[in-house]
Amino acid sequence: MFEQAFRNIDDVLRKEAGCTTELDYTEQTSWLLFLKYLDALEQEKATEAALAGKTYTPILDKPYRWGAWAAPKTKAGELDHNKCLVGDDLRDFVNQKLFPHLHGFKQKATGPNTIEYKIGEIFGEIKNKIQSGYNLRDIIEHIDELRFQSQKEKHELSHLYEAKIRNMGNAGRNGGEYYTPRPLIRAIVQVAKPRIGDRIYDGAVGSAGFLCEAFEYLKSRPNLNTKDLKTLQERTFYGKEKKSLAYVIAIMNMILHGIEAPNILHVNTLSENLADIQEKDRVEVIMANPPFGGKERPEVQQNFPIRTGETASYFSSTSSRCSRPRGAAAWSSRTPSCRTPTTPPSACANFSWKAATSIPCSTVPAAPSRARE
């Protein structure tokens, strides 16, 4: 239904001087897609409030809503070309007014898990790279064709967005930072067996593939009630991401999969001292594809008792510390063993890119009430 719109967007971006790679294409598509989604969310909440006899206060002021600056419509529902910004006027509005206004939401937000905070964080981290206001106008009109009303539409959009992430992952040397093969993720989720009520955490969230797949896995469980669905939305999926682009992609990917305000923080997981991780910070399920061969500054390395040049080792240490007794920890590895200079084999499941093996928890104290299947 929407596949042609995505192709058209990429065709326009290939003509754009400010966008040269698949990473640029995904980034620029993401912020526009996010604003289109936000407009649909606002309309949905306004309708719900009206049906309940209540008044809904929109998140965005009128000049910054999608229907005002991006796609104003006539009474017949057609695009009003007389009111549309185009060319330099459109580019200057986006760069000089829209982005600064949206970035300001971070200061106004009541907490990091609100949609307002996500708006401010996203538009403080990325920039509009579409230099031609005419190209931007063409892309906006293709984005405006997309719909978020039904589950079928959201499902298709999520698959198309995943395809963009996959293309980005295959595009070059750095693309793999954002994409883990989905069959591998599904295998890890099926072995970890998360349950309703578990908190699921990824400290190297990337494009949020593990969290999205875990959401699909839990959403398909039989006999879910309203309380279960609320738990999945608000108190199940958590992640941290260091890179700005990956953070934006993770937020958008989770939104398209049906999680309205993802609990993803834009921080470096390794910047937290192991000794500062408390019982309240520990979770039932950890799934991740930690970066291999990365480097960290000396002040970050000081957070760990043993220094090493391999960032995956630090992630293993952090995962062990964050896991609850008898929890499940699973991650992809370049080797079949999870042994590292800083971590004993305490993960419940460890995965190689070529094979999957299950390793019993041997160093975590037993807690029968949380025993897993």
What does this entry look like structurally?
The chain has 14 helices and 7 strands. With 373 residues, the chain is α/β, with parallel strands linked by helices. It has a 7-stranded mixed β-sheet with strand order 3-2-1-4-5-6-7. Strand 6 and strand 7 (356-358) form a beta hairpin. Mean pLDDT is 81; it is low at 335-373. It is globular, with a radius of gyration of 22 Å. It has 2 domains: 3-148, Up-down Bundle (Ferritin), CATH 1.20.1260.30; 189-370, Vaccinia Virus protein VP39 (Rossmann fold).
Outline of this structure?
This protein has 373 residues and is α/β, with parallel strands linked by helices. It has helices at residues 3-14, 22-51, 66-69, 87-103, 105-108, 115-125, 133-143, 151-169, 182-192, 209-219, 226-234, 244-257, 298-301, 311-322; strands at 200-202, 237-240, 263-265, 283-288, 323-333, 349-352, 356-358. The protein has two domains: 3-148, Up-down Bundle (Ferritin), CATH 1.20.1260; 189-370, Vaccinia Virus protein VP39 (Rossmann fold, 3-Layer(aba) Sandwich).
